[in-house]
Amino acid sequence: xxxxxxxxxxxxxxxxxxxxxxxxxxxxxxxxxxxxxxxxxxxxxxxxxxxxxxxxxxxxxxxxxxxxxxxxxxxxxxxxxxxxxxxxxxxxxxxxxxxxxxxxxxxxxxxxxxxxxxxxxxxxxxxxxxxxxxxxxxxxxxxxxxxxxxxxxxxxxxxxxxxxxxxxxxxxxxxxxxxxxxx
Length: 183
Prior knowledge:
Blueprint: H1 2-68, H2 73-79, H3 81-97, H4 104-117, H5 120-123, H6 126-153, H7 156-182
């Protein structure tokens, strides 16, 4: 009878050690994923705000030129090539941060803004440009909020492991209770 208790205790201890090891490994992994996701959120926020500011700056410069008199489209863009290059770089950096399946609307807005800043007629339409910038801000904020919620609640794998761990713990306690109550 004593050997049975020792065997059950040994098996229980090894199961518990394995479970603790699995939980610890998962917590470490999920913590790292959360850190990376927080960095991603910050980078996306910074890059998007910088893109909107630069595009807004380009649009304002174009409107000033239009108000000063006739404008040579190609001359304007050649004078602002450095700004256009920075805008293009930010545009592509932001796109690389996005998931093409999850963030289709945001990617479409980025494409619309890029085509707008290289089209003289669209660039000169202040109302349309302001609308695009506002839409980009709103959609980016929605993406950032969703990702922050994911960070707060934890990754899906971690949440599943918590539920499985709780279930195994409850079953183990029930099994031990049944074993000792029969003895």
